[in-house]
Design brief:
single chain, about 300 residues, mainly beta, RNA Polymerase Alpha Subunit, Chain A, domain 2, 3 domains, 9-stranded mixed sheet, 24 strands, about 10% helix
């Protein structure tokens, strides 16, 4: 039989006893206080194949007791309530939350949890494919409209509570900007669902938006060409002095355009006397755009005075 030597490591034993006495004196000299804390709620051991229905509180309130020094050192995350869901079944269930289910640092005692029980509802998990519906933001350039829109992938898998999955009819993309576009727009965007209880297996899609000329045309004949920004002291003349304009847009947009709403012009800013061949531009409305000007360029003669 091995012999026990009570005086072996006597120095270490004495040091440990001294530290214990000092710690006891420090702790016993502090005032015992209580504090209210809002702490995170952690869900553990959720059974596979079950989904939680509705909102679950992210936090609970507790009252803790301990030495004032110990409580003053408690920070966010040091105290956590743990709810074990391993016994969950389909339907509505009540889970008690006792002080023993709260993790706390040494020296901190949990005396109360509020609420003392949490009601939760569960449903079997389900999944199915739903179509991806692209969305756009803004308007194409005048005279152009949004054509066919496609998403790749065309469908995504929706996962969640069985009843919510049955209600899901589509997944939406974030809007693809098409403001001022005159040709196809292609962009990778996020895909989402309106119901927060659902989630997607793949939350990205590439959306292609065709930008096509508006379906109808309207012609404006012999519209005068306005000469803008003629340098003071100079005179300008355009030959020919009128052009034909072709508008494109929807039936409603074209019907609402007055002839005087569309102005053909040439900008002469910074040009001195001489003869120039200059392009004609046109102001158009947001709904109906000018797609053709005939002739597209005219001769402009700038002189220093009347002859």
């Amino acid at each position: 039989m091995a012999r026990i030597w009570p005086f072996r490591h006597l120095g270490l034993k004495a040091l440990s006893l001294g530290l214990a006495v000092i710690l006891w004196m420090v702790v016993s000299g502090e005032e015992t206080v209580e504090r209210g804390l809002r702490i995170p709620l952690e869900l553990q051991q959720a059974p596979a194949g079950l989904e939680i229905i509705g909102e679950v509180p992210a936090t609970v309130d507790v009252r803790v007791r301990g030495a004032s020094g110990s409580l003053s050192r408690v920070s966010t995350g040091d105290v956590v309530a743990v709810l074990d869901l391993r016994g969950a079944r389909s339907g509505r269930r009540l889970f008690p939350i006792a002080p023993e289910q709260v993790r706390a640092p040494f020296g901190v005692e949990v005396v109360q949890v509020q609420p003392s029980a949490l009601a939760m509802a569960f449903e079997p998990s389900a999944s199915r494919q739903v179509p991806v519906v692209p969305a756009v933001d803004g308007r194409p350039a005048p005279g152009y409209v949004v054509g066919a829109m496609t998403a790749d992938p065309k469908t995504v898998e929706v996962i969640g509570p069985e009843s919510a999955v049955r209600r899901a009819t589509e997944a939406l993309t974030e809007p693809v900007p098409v403001s001022g576009a005159r040709e196809q727009v292609r962009q990778s965007v996020n895909v989402g669902l309106i119901d927060p209880s659902l989630r997607l297996k793949n939350a990205r899609a590439t959306v292609t938006v065709q930008i096509v000329p508006a379906p109808l045309e309207r012609s404006l004949r012999s519209r005068p060409v306005h000469l803008r920004n003629v340098t003071p002291g100079l005179e300008a003349e355009a030959v020919p002095s009128a052009v034909d304009l072709t508008l494109r847009g929807s039936r409603e947009a074209l019907a609402g355009v007055e002839a005087d709403d569309i102005v053909a012009y040439i900008d002469l800013a910074g040009l001195g006397p001489g003869q120039y061949s200059l392009s004609v531009h046109a102001d158009s409305s947001p709904e109906a755009g000018v797609t053709r000007i005939e002739p597209s360029a005219v001769q402009v003669r700038i002189t220093s005075g009347k002859h």
